[in-house]
Write a structure and sequence with these properties.
disordered N terminus
Length: 507
């Protein structure tokens, strides 16, 4: 739960760009088998592919096939029960009780018990270096309750807890305890509609149909997530028939318009691409320099000229489909004249500011976007040095060592469809928070104590503080665009996750 972004980012962590399916392949289709879908995956988990540890968007694509969560968002963003059949909370949102269905089994034949649910959450809590722990700060402990229930105790009020549980895949206590994290990643056991087949790192992750799934049986027998980092290669794969569906870049959409071999499907993503800043050192420690940067970036030009209009300018740092979004929030301001004035007032003397970004992976056209920002800043007298790296190296800088030197281009697409994970990462002391201000930490805490419009208002207060201090700069919410075999029936999901259990080809 991109992480984000995390890698819970991706996320719980993360945009990490995702594919969402509802389709399988007939005999002779592009997947190469009558019962197989081949997905062109942008990347794979940087960490071990264990849902207790990993929260990358790539990992969640696997986990949503192999595991169940207590609840899950449908393709339109509506929250529905899954392993849980019902839930309730106490008066101040500090305790939640979930009733667990009694007919679910793990793929080894063992029943899914409330104790497995409690074990999963408590193990995440005991693994603070894991991605899921980064969006569960409010979680204290889970315990088996009366009947077939699990009781979650939180360390502070949190009204959006049901959205958080959508990102936690339930593992069997007995198996996980016996194998440990690395062993479990090599032979995972879940209760989902598909079960693990094999994983060749850097090549493919393959799952097969679970014949004993407690829910509706998937139509497809096999799903292959084939790692294809290059956008051109993904599009060519769908055109040639070696892939059934793949994420493509915004500037590729027009190239296949009207094609008989490719259908393009698009949806507004749940992530915001933003400009991060190490505001604790160098020229960026000067607030006037940061304010100048915010005013100098022509977001509308980036959306129109770089992204071919396949995005929406966004200044809130959470997307419109995510809990906490305020449709009435003020638009971003573009004022290069004011930016030049602030640069002059700041005392900045032209010192080069490093600008780090991943050249492939989660942000389509990242190099072009970085170049556009560099050009905008040069016009107001700010010098930046471009430093593009591969996605793995960039993720280590942001999520491993928190060592960005100046500016960096990042995205956060929360698979939980709630603003808590992004704002905790950006303003609550986590990976994207270089300022580490008590004021922003307090505002993050405030968002967790209220619901409804009060929660939206609390988010807006936090974003107004950010705008006033220019700690992070929201840029845009991208569309996600997919090249698809015309015979594949599917719809992009609001949360960007891949679901393949109801997939079908043909009419």
């Amino acid at each position: 739960m991109i992480s984000r972004t995390h890698s819970a980012i991706a996320g719980f962590t993360v945009l990490a760009a995702a594919l969402a399916l509802t389709g399988c392949a007939p005999a002779g289709s592009s997947g190469g088998s009558g019962n197989e879908i081949v997905v062109g995956a942008v990347t794979e988990p940087e960490k071990v592919a264990d849902p207790i540890v990993d929260g990358s968007l790539a990992g969640y694509n696997y986990y949503f096939a192999e595991f169940d969560q207590l609840a899950r968002f449908d393709p339109d963003g509506k929250l529905n029960p899954l392993l849980a059949t019902a839930w309730e909370h106490n008066a101040d949102f500090t305790q939640w009780t979930f009733t667990i269905r009694d007919n679910a089994k793990f793929q080894n034949g063992d029943p899914v018990l409330p104790s497995d649910v409690a074990f999963t959450y408590n193990t995440i809590k005991a693994t603070p270096s894991g991605d899921p722990a980064s969006y569960m700060e409010m979680f204290d402990k889970a315990a088996v309750g009366a009947g077939n229930t699990v009781v979650f105790t939180l360390n502070a009020p949190f009204s959006a807890w049901p959205s958080i549980v959508t990102g936690v895949s339930i593992v069997p206590e007995k198996v996980y305890t016996a194998l440990g994290s690395a062993g479990f990643a090599a032979a995972p056991v879940g209760s989902g509609p598909f079960m693990f087949d094999h994983y060749t790192r850097g090549v493919e992750y393959v799952v097969k149909r679970n014949p004993n799934y407690w829910g509706p049986a998937p139509a497809v027998e096999k799903v292959t997530f084939k790692t294809v980092a290059d956008a051109d290669a993904r599009l060519n794969g769908v055109q040639s028939g070696s892939l059934d569906v793949a994420l493509i870049a915004p500037n590729q959409v027009s190239a296949v318009s009207g094609s008989s071999s490719v259908t393009v499907k698009s949806n507004v993503s749940n992530g915001v691409t933003f400009l991060g800043m190490n505001s604790s050192a160098g020229p960026l420690a000067n607030q006037k320099v940061r304010e100048a940067i915010a005013l100098a970036i022509d977001r509308n030009s980036i959306v129109k000229n770089v992204l071919a209009g396949k995005a929406k300018v966004d200044n809130q740092l959470i997307a419109q489909s995510v809990g906490g979004f305020n449709p009435a929030y003020p638009q971003a301001v573009y004022d290069p004249v004011k930016a030049k004035q602030l640069v002059a007032e700041s005392g900045y003397t032209g010192q080069a500011i490093p600008f780090q970004y991943a050249t492939n992976g989660r942000i389509p056209l990242s190099s072009e976007i970085a170049q556009a920002i560099q050009g905008d800043l040069a016009k107001v007298g700010i010098t930046v040095t471009l430093n593009g790296t591969d996605q793995g190296s960039f993720s280590q800088i942001i999520y491993g060592t928190k060592s960005a030197q100046g500016l960096y281009l990042n995205t956060y697409a929360p698979s939980t469809m709630d603003g808590d994970a992004p704002v905790a990462s950006m303003f609550g002391g986590q990976q994207n928070d270089y300022a580490m201000l008590p004021a922003t930490a307090a505002l993050v805490a405030k968002t967790r104590t209220v619901g409804g419009q009060g929660r939206i208002d609390a988010y807006s207060e936090l974003f107004r503080f950010n705008d006033a201090h220019s700690l992070l700069i929201g840029l845009y919410t991208p569309d996600t665009n997919y090249a698809v075999d015309p015979e594949l029936k599917w719809s992009p999901r609001a949360d960007g996750m891949i679901t393949v259990d109801a997939a079908s080809f043909g009419s």
